[in-house]
Amino acid sequence: MNIRNNIALSDSGFLFDPSTGDSFSVNPIGMEIIRMIKGGKTDPEIRQYLLSTYQTDEATIEKDYYDFLKMVEQFHLIEKTDGKEKD
């Protein structure tokens, strides 16, 4: 998966979709996830980073991470690559 190319990202967590005029803001952890996706990190790499960086359990990381992905997909901010997810 990738963040769509036309999505503008700011350092403060502001995302802008120029094709629709929609704007979104994400918290610092959401911005980290978006940067990792843009950087080509896989789902397991991102989950491992979150698990090693934040003091919580694996089930919480996994649930929150996939809830976040579902939200950005719902707002059409990401696109799937090769017709499948990287795992």
Structural class: alpha+beta
What is the helix tally? 3
SSE topology string: EEEEHHHE
- Estimate the mean pLDDT confidence: 89
Q: How many angstroms does the end-to-end distance come to?
A: 10 Å
Which geometry do the CA atoms define?
A: globular
Supply the number of structural domains: 1
DSSP strand tally: 5
Share of β-strand residues: 15-25%
State the name of the first-level CATH class.
Answer: Mainly Alpha
CATH architecture descriptor? Orthogonal Bundle
CATH topology: the name is Arc Repressor Mutant, subunit A
Biggest sheet record: 3 strands, antiparallel
Q: How helix-rich are the residues, as a percent range? A: 40-55%
Rounded radius of gyration (Å):
13 Å
The strand line-up of the biggest sheet is 2-3-4
Low-confidence stretches: 83-87
Q: Could you describe the 3D structure shown?
A:
The protein has 87 residues and is of the alpha+beta class. The chain has a single domain (2-79), classed as Arc Repressor Mutant, subunit A. Helix content is 45%, strand content 16%. The protein contains three helices and five strands. It is globular and about 40 Å long. The termini are close together.
